[in-house]
Amino acid sequence: MQARLLFEDGLTFYGTAFTQPPRTVFAELVFNTAMIGYEEIITDPSYRGQMVVMTYPMAGNYGFDDTHAESGSACIEALVVKTYIDMPAVATGQTLKGYLDRQGILGVENMDTRAIVRYLRNFGAKRAVLTTQNMPDALLIEQLKQWNMPTRLAETAGNARPQLFRASTQPACYSVAVIDTGVKLNMIHMLQQLGCNCTLLPPNSSADAILCGNFSGVLLANGPGDPRQLHQPVQTIQQLLGKIPVFGICLGHQLLGLALGLEVVKLKFGHHGTNHPVKNLLTGKVEITSHNHNYALTLQSVQQCPQVQLTHLNLLDQTVAGIKHLTMPAFSVQYHPEAAPGPTDSHYLFTEFINLMEIWSKTCSHL
User: Fold this and answer.
1) Distance (Å, rounded) from C-alpha 187 to C-alpha 181?
2) C-beta of residue 244 within 8 angstroms of C-beta of residue 210
3) Residue 149 CB burial class (10 angstroms; 0-12, 13-18, ≥19)
4) 359 CA to centre of own chain
5) How many helices (H) and strands (E) does the chain have?
6) Is 250 a catalytic residue?
7) Coil, helix or strand at residue 270
8) Catalytic residue selected from 75, 196, 250, 305
9) Local structure of 254: helix, strand or coil
């Protein structure tokens, strides 16, 4: 079944759908440079509202194993690859095609992914339409121009109701409130292994409700969309600062920055991959990290805020990769420390969060 990828300027790419049934998808198109990890990418809630084109030429060559999923369902709008390999997973016997079919996600192969990525690098992440249906190009482009790209996806990416994940060993040492704007499950697993009960809370949760919940700390999770549109979570974070330890990851990092009065801008084509070198400016060490975001804090706004310290820097483009507050228990990173491209280069950040909660609990007990 032929597939077409069209941009607003009329540029068109052709390929072949490897999933069923025929459908048309409007979304923002981004590229990911990871060589492995399509299972995690497909199920990452941060990709809601986006189609993903993979720079690595093969996908499907190790099937699909649900135990590697980062959420309970597929989150991308569509997947574009150079070559699809119909290979079942060793553990489950499930193919990538089988999983995408069950999830209703369009998968396309035989497209010139190199040319698509070069186009996105030159002109930035773009709105696009991907279709396997027999519709005129002019009509599709007109519909694309009229399509309103959603920006507040994080408000519905997570659980609408609180959900408890208990620590791997009981009794738990800490209780963490997770502002669920689309949290990846491995973040929860990392905290569980470190003795934390994790309660996922909706992104519109109030500061009063969190502070009355007997929590040891707050995790600001990853998620999709424009952080500048999430006014309620930013207000909640402002009311939490100085009253409980806060750790932000990806979108949570951006929300913490906004709560501290820093500036957020949209990057040209974002960071999506597992090969980003990030320098820890406090230790001088370089970490190989995983990224998935289109927005970032501006370096200038961080440098102009006397209460905020720049802790991590992306060495590919010198963008802000981590900050901490100098007087309040709050820090964040733009990348994903729960991922393992290093493979354990960034896991220490969860331990730092544990230490921060421990110090804070001792401090509060003496007040």
Assistant:
1) 13
2) yes
3) middle
4) 29
5) 11, 19
6) yes
7) strand
8) 250
9) helix
Q: To which residue do tokens 């790419």 refer?
A: 13
Beta strands in the chain (DSSP E): 2-7, 12-17, 24-32, 50-54, 58-59, 78-80, 83-84, 106-109, 126-131, 163-165, 174-179, 196-201, 217-220, 246-249, 264-280, 286-297, 308-314, 320-325, 330-333
Concatenated DSSP letters of 91-106: TT---HHHHHHHHT-E
What is the spatial distance between Cα 191 and Cα 353, in angstroms, rounded to a whole number? 9
75 is catalytic: no
Where is average pLDDT lowest: 45-49, 125-129, 342-346, 361-365? 361-365
Catalytic residue among 68, 253, 276, 336: 336
Go through the chain and tell me how many residues it has. Answer: 367
Output the DSSP codes for 309-354: EEEEEETTT--EEEEEESSSSEEEESS-TTS-SSSSTTTHHHHHHH
Q: What is the CATH code of the structural domain delimited by 2-146? A: 3.50.30.20
pLDDT at 365: 57
CA 97 → CA 30, 36, 132, distances in Å? Answer: 21, 16, 16
| 287 in active site | no
Give the residue carrying structure tokens 């991590």: 312
Give CATH for domain 154-365: 3.40.50.880
Going from N- to C-terminal start, the domains of the chain cover: 2-146, 154-365
**Greatest CA separation found in the chain?**
71
Rounded distance between C-alpha atoms, residue 248 and residue 14, angstroms: 40
37-78 pLDDT tens trace: 999 999 999 999 999 999 999 999 999 999 999 999 999 999
Structure tokens at 148: 């309103």
Nearest to 23 by CA among 42, 45, 3, 53: 3
Q: Which residue has the tokens 């290979």?
A: 87
Q: Which residues contact 32 (CB under 8 A, 6 or more apart)?
A: 41, 52, 53, 54, 55, 272, 273, 292
- Integer distance in angstroms from the first to the last C-alpha of the chain? 68
pLDDT at 151: 85
